[in-house]
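Project outcomes to date are best conveyed with an example. Our students and postdoctoral researchers have been running inverse folding experiments weekly, and each run begins with a structure described purely in tokens. The record below, which covers 237 residues, was selected by the lab manager from last quarter's runs and is presented without edits.
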């Protein structure tokens, strides 16, 4: 069953409470566990940015701040920024140029696409354009949100969409996770509400913890494999 947040928003409080509890416990370790690397020399060559920071968590925040400033000051460079965010930094190489142009145009208008198709790509464009208001939603994040609820949720649970990803550990879990969610009658978030639901969740949790929304996203990203291991232990094949 697909549900709109306008109708079911009070039920999201359970997920918010669950994520808040998890983030409170695990966010202190984020600078150590976030290890998504990128070529700082390439960034210097491409954009003339010096990326500071003592770990990949700090470097990534610095990268997004540089990108956001450039997005605002140099509209002619937005396609280059989007290409870097999605294809180079994010490793998603399957987008056609026209698709990327559409993402850039939509984000430049202060919007995001109307449904979650391509969300792993266009949310990167949005997050690099303004990391204070947007965060990345990809296969790892979606998986973590679902397993977090499976393991720790205590009320109504919400199904975030299964996105294609490259991680074999996560791929092996998705079919069983889907089956269990169906049996437990989870509510499926309508495709038009996936991103707004996600951002609303991150905003509420990050405000209570006085962190950036990107910190909560990076935690979900970093913990995906741990969630897969915990899921396999709790629900063995």
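After processing, the design step wrote out the following sequence:
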């Amino acid at each position: 069953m697909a549900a709109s947040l306008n109708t079911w928003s009070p039920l999201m409080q359970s997920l918010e409470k669950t994520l808040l509890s998890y983030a409170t416990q695990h966010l202190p370790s984020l600078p150590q566990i976030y290890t998504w690397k990128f070529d700082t020399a390439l960034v210097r060559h491409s954009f003339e940015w010096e990326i500071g920071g003592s770990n990949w968590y700090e470097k990534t925040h610095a990268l997004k701040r540089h990108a956001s400033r450039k997005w605002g000051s140099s509209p002619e460079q937005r396609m280059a920024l989007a290409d870097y965010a999605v294809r180079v930094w994010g490793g998603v190489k399957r987008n056609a140029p026209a698709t990327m142009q559409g993402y850039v145009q939509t984000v430049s208008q202060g919007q995001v696409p109307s449904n979650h198709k391509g969300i792993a790509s266009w949310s990167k464009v949005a997050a690099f354009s303004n990391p204070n208001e947007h965060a990345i939603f990809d296969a790892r994040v979606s998986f973590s949100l679902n397993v977090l609820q499976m393991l720790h949720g205590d009320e109504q649970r919400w199904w975030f969409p299964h996105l294609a990803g490259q991680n074999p550990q996560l791929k092996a879990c998705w079919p069983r996770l889907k089956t269990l969610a169906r049996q437990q009658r989870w509510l499926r978030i309508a495709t038009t509400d996936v991103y707004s639901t996600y951002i609303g969740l991150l905003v509420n949790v990050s405000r209570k913890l006085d962190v950036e929304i990107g910190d909560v996203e990076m935690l979900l990203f970093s913990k995906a494999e741990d969630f897969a291991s915990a899921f396999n232990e709790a629900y063995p094949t």
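The chain has two domains: 2-29+137-234, 40-129. Confidence is low (pLDDT under 50) at residues 1-8. The training component of this project remains on track.
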